């Protein structure tokens, strides 16, 4: 086995690009009264469009239109329509990779990385024997809305109960991903392992905060080529997906009895634009419905380093109605130092350079990591990064260098097929906080979602989640 390779993950903070539209123009129509009218299909036809899907529980309709601008104007003018937004592509920001082909021959056969300084983030977030003596999260269902999960990974397979994909490749085809629930990017496996990686004999080298919680894999992002239409750039591609897939994923998580939804994704939105306000209304409708159904929604605050005190900008879904936003924090055994070749030195827990921040987020914080990396050849030394599972792509395939086929697939970012990876970002923070919420819920099975969230806030220390105190509440 190899030491996890290291990667700077900015994929937690996704952004909506104006130029990256679905191949077929699609619109989301949000109705004011929360009810899709009976004649919605006729209205769409009158606007020069056609109904693609009714989301009756949400009061939202997805329609396709050749002339998007005209259809949008016609539908938005209807008195019972709250917003009409384009079904845009969410595109991940860039990542930085360095390979660490270090053999680990001295660690035990399971939970080996967790039991070294590499496991600092999970322990700091509450994944430790003290809390596990009370509960390991058994019976709590965590929906991971991400790029999928590696269903064959020994740290994930024991807890995996649902594999569902929202990917519709007729809307957004990709030569880099087959659209199945299997993770072909790596991001979803990493976050799932931080939330609920399995513990004990027969598992792998990491463990999650809630190692007995159930994982619901709901794939809402696929690997797209770095250059649109160029399959030779799949290796540098990032996890991307349509807005409608994310919204459908939230709804399907509720339908599949999720207790917690973890969303290590997001978009920085300018509310001064018509689409910005519409996106807020659209997310609010879906996230509030989920919270009212008793689900705890957790979302990454984003990696843009932006002060969200400016009311013009918000991060979605982190600032959507009913969602708990999570910012990042650093390792006290390896204080943030951005100087090249810096060594780990103990210091205060701080917010790392990349994390979005600001009072309007009303955020909690959880480990996200930062520089320094720590020694490249010694897992017994501290690191500022966060280790987690990655993906070996489609079963029975070799790493691809171009398009996917029966023999080749993509898996762990640009690293080929890799079991583990080290990274940083608010993606980790959200997943770790989701694991914390699962432990609290399992420890207090009579509590509703609002009470769990209130406990997370009331027990936080300087904004940092304090799972031990929340689990110990009467």
Descriptive overview:
One of its GO terms (molecular function) is serine-type endopeptidase activity. Pfam families: Peptidase_S8. Keywords: Hydrolase, Protease, Serine protease, Signal. InterPro entries: Peptidase_S8/S53_dom (IPR000209), Peptidase_S8/S53_dom_sf (IPR036852), Peptidase_S8_Asp-AS (IPR023827), Peptidase_S8_subtilisin-like (IPR050131), Peptidase_S8_subtilisin-rel (IPR015500). The structure is a single chain. The protein is an alpha/beta fold. The protein folds into two domains: 394 residues, 3-Layer(aba) Sandwich (Rossmann fold), CATH 3.40.50; 64 residues, Alpha-Beta Plaits, CATH 3.30.70.80. Strand 4 and strand 5 form a beta hairpin. The termini are far apart. The relative contact order is 0.18. About 6% of the residues have low confidence.
Shape: globular
Q: What is the end-to-end distance?
A: 43 Å
- According to CATH, what is the topology of the largest domain? Rossmann fold
Work out the strand percent. 15-25%
CATH architecture field of the largest domain: 3-Layer(aba) Sandwich
Largest sheet: 7 strands, parallel
Reading off the top of the CATH hierarchy, the class of the largest domain is best stated as: Alpha Beta
**Helicity range:** 10-25%
CATH superfamily of the largest domain: Peptidase S8/S53 domain
Question: Which regions have little confidence, pLDDT < 50, spanning 5+ residues?
Answer: 10-23, 93-107
What's the domain count?
A: 2
Q: Helical segment tally?
A: 10
**What is the topology, as strand order, of the major beta sheet?**
10-11-9-14-16-18-19
Tally of strands: 23
Main structural class: alpha/beta
Rg estimate, integer Å: 21 Å
Mean pLDDT: 90
Signal peptide: 1-22
Domain Peptidase S8/S53: 137-466
Keywords: Hydrolase, Protease, Serine protease, Signal
GO molecular function: serine-type endopeptidase activity
């Amino acid at each position: 086995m190899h030491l996890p390779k290291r990667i700077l993950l900015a994929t937690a903070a996704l952004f909506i690009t104006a130029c990256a539209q679905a191949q077929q123009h699609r619109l989301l129509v949000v109705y004011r009264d929360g009810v899709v009218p009976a004649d919605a299909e006729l209205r769409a036809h009158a606007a020069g469009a056609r109904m693609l899907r009714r989301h009756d529980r949400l009061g939202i309709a997805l329609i396709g239109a050749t002339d998007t601008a005209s259809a949008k104007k016609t539908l938005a003018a209807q008195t019972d329509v709250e917003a009409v937004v384009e079904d845009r592509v969410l595109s991940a920001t860039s990542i930085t990779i360095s390979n660490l082909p270090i053999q680990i021959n001295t660690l035990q056969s399971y939970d080996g990385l967790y039991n070294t300084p590499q496991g600092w983030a999970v322990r700091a977030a509450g994944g430790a024997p003290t809390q596990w003596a009370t509960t390991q999260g058994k019976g709590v269902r965590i929906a991971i809305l991400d790029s999928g999960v590696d269903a064959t990974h020994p740290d994930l397979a024991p807890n995996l109960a649902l594999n569902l994909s929202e990917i519709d490749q007729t809307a957004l085809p990709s030569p880099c991903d087959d659209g199945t629930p299997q993770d072909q990017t790596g991001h979803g496996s990493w976050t799932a392992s931080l939330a609920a990686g399995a513990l004990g004999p027969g598992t792998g080298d990491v463990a999650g905060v809630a190692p007995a919680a159930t994982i619901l894999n709901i794939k809402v992002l696929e690997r797209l080529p770095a250059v649109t239409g160029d399959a030779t750039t799949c290796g540098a591609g990032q996890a991307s997906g349509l807005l409608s897939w994310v919204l459908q994923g939230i709804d399907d998580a509720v339908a599949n009895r999720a207790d917690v939804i973890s969303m290590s994704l997001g978009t920085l939105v300018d509310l001064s634009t018509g689409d910005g306000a519409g996106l807020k209304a659209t997310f609010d409708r879906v996230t509030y419905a989920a919270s009212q159904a008793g689900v705890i929604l957790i979302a990454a605050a984003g990696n843009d380093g932006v002060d969200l005190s400016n009311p013009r900008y918000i991060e979605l879904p982190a600032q959507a109605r009913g969602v708990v936003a999570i910012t990042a924090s650093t390792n006290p055994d390896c204080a943030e130092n951005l100087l090249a070749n810096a060594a780990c030195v103990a210091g205060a827990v701080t917010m790392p350079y990349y994390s979005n921040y600001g009072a309007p987020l009303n955020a909690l914080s959880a480990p996200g990591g930062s520089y320094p990396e720590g020694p490249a050849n010694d897992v017994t030394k501290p690191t500022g990064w966060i280790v987690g599972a990655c993906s070996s792509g489609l079963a029975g395939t070799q790493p691809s260098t171009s398009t996917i086929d029966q023999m080749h697939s993509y898996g762990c970012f640009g690293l080929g097929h890799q079991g583990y990876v080290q990274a940083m970002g608010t993606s980790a923070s959200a997943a770790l906080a989701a694991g914390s919420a699962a432990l609290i819920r399992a420890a207090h099975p009579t509590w509703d979602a609002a009470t769990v969230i209130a406990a997370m806030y009331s027990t936080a220390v300087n904004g940092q989640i304090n799972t031990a105190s929340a689990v110990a509440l009467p």
